[in-house]
């Protein structure tokens, strides 16, 4: 027997329509790529998104077509989020930090038909254009005076497209399972793989994000995502903020400490999010200027694990609560988030600091399991590590064009490629990427734990643990360390520092101080490259 | 092009499974109908719900079958919410305050096959049994020693059903559009009409309820619904609380001030909800005892509109914020809720009090429109009243068996039968039920406004405005007033009181002091009966 409830589809235009109707004057504030601050309300954003929807249709964009962007976090990018998905097409947000060959590769793999780009990328796009097999329209996200001269001939101008089209537009009825956006994971191995989000998955994910135990967003909040809109859709804040009528502050391309602090102060941001390195810049700037961001209530930190000292500094200097989050492009990105339980009320400060180092707990909507090498569910003891697998309505079921199918298991779960533990309270802690794991004498050694251990030494700027072959133990850990400028430390001192913090047999046989580590386009150490370098060192 | 995201259905078992896994020891605390306080965790509740699922299947309950309850807000009722829906059957929560003939009518209309009842209703069910054409199984929600002797012969015992069945049960895969629960609106006219909720609508509604701008629920909350689980599912808190792992406090049948205060104090409730009369009892008890409910953060008030003085007393004496809510059985029940906007930060106390008298604003998921008599959308000026119509994924699309089809409009909207205004900030204010509206000289007079106006007089306990025929103006208002015990007031004094508060032509021609008003099973004045009494007064 079917329910007798209205069969209204969950779709993205409904979010912006809601924001425009109920929070029409609530602002989207952008630090534009051209320079000045731009501000307008959700009603204006809707009107312009509708102009753009008309423009896209006039350009021949059909439902299912991929429309690409090479763009920072701005109001125009926001408009494209809704205009492209709203006509039933798919917004492909390309990471401009990829190597140009990879950009061409993903654009061709996605079969993008239109490419919108920020003025920053005029030269890049001019050079790439001949390699883009399917792109037939280029459009610069600016006005005529700012059109970069190196852009391909015939490049259209965003503001002219807006001006030339009507804000009258009726969104087509969309199946809620229709694709809305495409985002490639820039994995550290192999070609990037595309995650194809849908209207339903994105709406459900946005509803989950606003919950008190997640980002805790209301109409009284001002959300400043210190993440780019090509990184898992800036953690989907461009959907979550209008869903509740929160102010949305878009930082353009500038994610440095001074720029973020200026915006957060001026716009009285209440919620910030970003990867750990962002906060180092913010804190250093606050230190240098003596400023305080008193309006901020919560700071979400994800992408990689923050150190205890970083969490403490953010909480002390911003007066905000840190919520660590784990997720990935394939999980929209919400996987788990670290919020306290009722039993933690009045918890000891040291215990709270320990708890906050974990990646977090599951919320309704994401099912998690951790399987050992024998395929059995691991005990929840905070020690037994295994393959982290997830399932839920905002988790990918496949990659675009069926790449990387081995991650999608026959029983409906997605293998994240992470190795993790769950403790008795079900807080998740990542210990490794599966492909980076060190196996010594048949047991796993956590590279993340080794890196965390040495990183707590004041002289350490960055660290990477890798396994090196060993005749008896198969593998033993090698710890590579980059020192902070102006600091010094001896390898033996660092080894002793680690020895005090991990199991005895985990202590690396060697700590090696190096000048730099190879970093990929998402800011992560490229461990495969590192292992190759170690195995076959280039002549000095 | 379809998205490549997992096609996980939104279903109710997933909520309880989540709560059991992630908040297994978080408590459901019940004041049982038998007397003692009962407490257990969500993991226990899941295990017992699975026992009951096995029991229902053993009793021959098939997907789509209706299983009825005549029951208060208890843990056993909670278990049935999940057990019945979880096997694909439909839980029909009958309002025991209905007249016995109406109870028989709805049970027969719903074609209930099983009837679960609390011990309170042993005699009632014993008398009703012969009239229940389709019920083949009766079960008392208690243990053997408490089985009421007047229950029908062969009545099963809930705890014996639990004991006799295994907690091992795999929920069947359910289409998310499958029906899960049936609730009849006990309208003041005609036969009750059934609203058939589904898994999808209920999950989406629960996700909407927990948002910071709605009930604002996290794992750290303790939710005490001062509403019965047969009234729009206790405003769906039995779904929303486990969705976030909040403690759930179920008051059994006792919604009087002392009982609620005792539970709220002992269990440190953070969120309460109920109709206005509930709070009068709570406040009077707090006054009498000098107690304070310091743990409460928010109090949702709905069902009918609270007066300014009631809101002020709740906020003062509980130290909580009042969130007025409007909704109905047909809207699951969330329609609108009164939470402040960013612009209201630091608002003047008097303005805040005025704002809180409105029913609230729309959240994403419920679309509202107000149509004038000519079918045009009314201006948002806080004055222009019209028919309130709604649309959304948790709004009914029809009544069970297609009763009352005229409320479901051809263009997909539901006509609520309420008359309302929207102001410039989109706060909704109800002015009347469409069938109660007074039309005088071609213009509407709001009966709710007249009742509010006279109710602010200290001597007034209750009031009802009705239209009486008038040769010149078609109708004129008559205001019937019940005085508070120990107070006195003259009709002219009350008329003068009203005259200072409404438009001059709204002032009723007559204020009549009466001993009582006819109250229906949901606590609302039966205005149709009142109009009939006035038109054809019974001999004194």
How would you describe the overall organization of this protein?
The structure is a homodimer of 540-residue chains. Chain A contains 16 helices and 25 strands. In chain A, the strands form five sheets. Chain A has a nine-stranded mixed beta sheet, sandwiched between helices. The first copy, chain A, has 540 residues and is an alpha/beta fold. Helices cover 29% and strands 24% of the residues of chain A. At the A-B interface, α1, β9, α7 and β16 of A face α1, β9, α7 and β16 of B.
Concise overview:
Chain A is α/β, with parallel strands linked by helices and 540 residues long. The first copy, chain A, is 29% helix and 24% strand.
Radius of gyration of chain A: 24 Å
Overall morphology of chain A: globular
Number of helices of chain A: 16
Mean pLDDT across all amino acids of chain A: 94
Biggest β-sheet of chain A, characterized? Answer: 9 strands, mixed
SS elements, strand count of chain A: 25
Q: What is the strand arrangement across the widest sheet of chain A? A: 2-1-11-10-12-13-14-15-16
Q: Tell me which protein chains meet in the greatest interface and how many residues each side has.
A: A-B, 72 and 71 residues
List the quaternary state of the chains. homodimer
Tell me the strand percentage band of chain A.
15-25%
Termini gap of chain A: 74 Å
- Backbone structural class of chain A: alpha/beta
Poorly predicted tracts of residues of chain A = none
Helical residues, percent of chain A:
25-40%
